[in-house]
Design brief:
single chain; seven-stranded mixed β-sheet; 15 strands
């Protein structure tokens, strides 16, 4: 099993320009047109302390769920015994864990007669293999972020085209579709947008209490346009100016947080008490993880996970029926084919309480 680190640098292969092999050429510094820094905001916010990890011995995840319906005493005469106390029902839910993976190869042709980018040294098999390993490590980190993005934006697990079930957790667990987005109009003269957000956070707090849980705070993960509209509104209201112009340039610049090479604009609303974070990253070129006009409200929970990460063992000799690893890797060496490798992760993200994610958008 490999140790994964998504904060690695890469040098892309560059081949010397064709021409007279004896002609003197200057070797200038490498121009790197990409890097292995990975956006992982959702992995941090929805993972970590907010995630419970389960290592199964099979690829079927089951858990027991029990409803709780609070009751109060009923009025009665002195000769009666009161209303019957209801019996709470339990059920078992089942979800199948899918599999995803990637493979790569370092062949002789990859380094035969070639030099390392930015140097005059010959490449080696180890150079090619390390570049491929680094890129596979990044692929694993990006895949995890996409899984959390799917849970956040659609309430479903991501199968990435694999032959497994994509579960709609809102429908499967609560028996209904995810509610349509709450439309917030930051240009309204009659509706207070901050109050609408505060009401959503309060309603979510009440839902948490009904689950016997609590939150340390609430975060609104925003697309670009939503964040700009919300930030402009907050700037104007906090300096007692009418909200009908562009962002006020006399106010402070929007604060940012840094994580793994990415900077995220954010602010805490003094009116709603919610922290707004602008997330404009895209992993699949041209497709943002959070659409420009959308935002998603989530709790920062304590005492229970928002998302369950469930791992299943690889279906190969030596791993079947044993506790699952979070990543599997195999390497094969051949004098003609070079070094081939396969990475595999068998993971299901489960949203056990789908009503703890709320979607909002702007007009």
């Amino acid at each position: 099993m490999s140790n994964f680190d998504s904060n690695l640098d890469v040098q892309k292969d560059m081949v010397r320009a064709s021409g007279n092999g004896f002609q003197l050429q200057d070797q200038t510094p490498l121009v790197n047109m990409g890097n292995l820094s990975s956006p992982q905001l959702l992995t941090v916010l929805m993972g970590g302390a907010q995630t419970s990890t389960n290592h199964l011995r099979s690829n079927v995840f089951q858990y027991d769920e029990k409803d709780y319906n609070p009751q109060v005493f009923s009025g009665k005469s002195f000769t009666e015994k009161g209303a019957d106390l209801s019996k709470d029902k339990a059920r078992t839910r089942f979800f199948e864990v899918g599999s995803k993976g990637i493979r790569f190869n370092a062949s002789v042709e990859d380094y035969d007669g070639k030099r390392k980018a930015g140097t005059d040294e010959f490449m080696t098999e180890a150079d090619v293999l390390q570049d491929q390993i680094n890129k596979a490590n990044q692929a694993a980190a990006l895949d995890m972020e996409l899984d959390f993005a799917s849970i956040l934006t659609t309430g479903t697990n991501r199968v990435a085209g694999g032959p497994f079930t994509s579960y709609d957790f809102h429908d499967d667990i609560l028996g209904s579709s995810r509610p349509t987005a709450l439309r917030v109009d930051y240009a309204s003269t009659t509706v207070n947008p901050a109050e609408a957000i505060r009401a959503q956070a309060q309603d979510m707090q009440n839902k948490l209490l009904s689950y016997g849980l609590n939150a340390n705070g609430f975060v609104l993960i925003c697309g670009d346009h939503y964040f700009s509209a919300a930030y402009e509104y907050e700037q104007m209201t906090t300096i007692a100016r009418e909200l009908r112009t562009t962002v006020d340039l006399v106010s402070q610049a929007v604060p940012t947080i840094d994580h793994k090479g990415y900077r995220y604009s954010n602010f805490e609303s003094p009116t709603s008490g919610v922290t707004y974070i602008n997330y404009s990253a895209n992993i699949v070129a041209g497709t943002k993880l959070i659409a420009d006009n959308d935002a998603y409200l989530i709790p920062i929970m304590s005492g229970a996970p928002l998302v369950e990460k469930v791992y299943a063992p690889a279906k190969v000799r030596g791993h079947v029926n044993k506790p699952a690893q979070e990543m599997y890797s195999w390497f094969a060496v051949d004098d003609f084919e070079g070094v081939s490798a396969w990475y595999e992760r068998n993971m299901l993200t489960v949203l056990t309480r789908p009503d703890l994610i709320r979607k909002l958008d702007i007009a």
